[in-house]
Amino acid sequence: MKEIDENEIQLDSNRYLVSETDAKGVITYCNDYFTEISGYTREELIGKQHNIIRHPDMPRVVFKLLWERISQGKNINAVVKNLAKNGKYYWVFTEFQTRIDLDTNTVIGYTAHRKLISDDVSNTIENIYKQVLYVEQQKGMEKAQEFLEALLKEKGRDINFVNLMDNIYKFY
Ligand SMILES: Cc1cc2nc3c(=O)[nH]c(=O)nc-3n(C[C@H](O)[C@H](O)[C@H](O)COP(=O)(O)O)c2cc1C
User: Fold this and answer.
1) What SS3 class is residue 172?
2) Where are the domains of the chain?
3) Cα angle 69, 61, 91; round to 5
């Protein structure tokens, strides 16, 4: 049983937190649940970079992998810890999608759907991210990526970050 952490925001399992950005990651849309949980008003969010809700516990390399994928038009899932305006946090499973203009074959923007994850998953991923963040702070992002890849391989499943996240409930 996980201890109750008063700094963690409890999410409703039936509701998604949705946001959209332009091609540069500037927020262009968010649904009511996203604004409610973030603690910001829509006016405070629209027009801002999406890192407005970035939690300092998140390794940068996760976002590097994210941007590498979505900017190529490939979707990706990721477990993310986010920071609300009041300093509280929440863990979500996020599905990122690229919106492409088919006429010009260019990226119009990106959409993210977030939902609650189980404590088992967030605890496991938190443990991985802590180690990765430590390496990143000591040795930089490149070493952190190598460390993450090695860590996942070590699990003997021949997985990388993308398929770990795609199969999160199979692995954990
Ligand atoms: C559609 C979309 C949704 C995003 N959602 C989040 C999010 O929920 N939390 C977050 O920290 N970063 C999110 N990002 C990534 C941010 O753009 C940014 O890369 C990240 O917060 C790291 O900040 P930095 O680039 O300043 O290091 C999202 C990006 C896109 C395109």
Assistant:
1) coil
2) 17-171
3) 90
Which of 20, 50, 95, 111 to mutate for ligand 1's pocket (most ligand atoms within 8 Å of CB)? 50
Pocket lining: 15 vs ligand 1, CB cutoff 6 Å: no
Would you write out the chain's pLDDT as a tens digit for each of its 172 residues? 556 788 999 999 999 999 999 999 999 999 999 999 999 999 999 999 999 999 999 999 999 999 999 999 999 999 999 999 999 999 999 999 999 999 999 999 999 999 999 999 999 999 999 999 999 999 999 999 999 999 888 876 677 888 888 887 766 5
Atom of ligand 1 nearest to the CA of 54: 11
Amino acid at 6: E
Q: What angle do CA 56, 35, 101 make, to 5 degrees?
A: 90
The fourth-level CATH superfamily of domain 17-171 is: PAS domain (3.30.450.20)
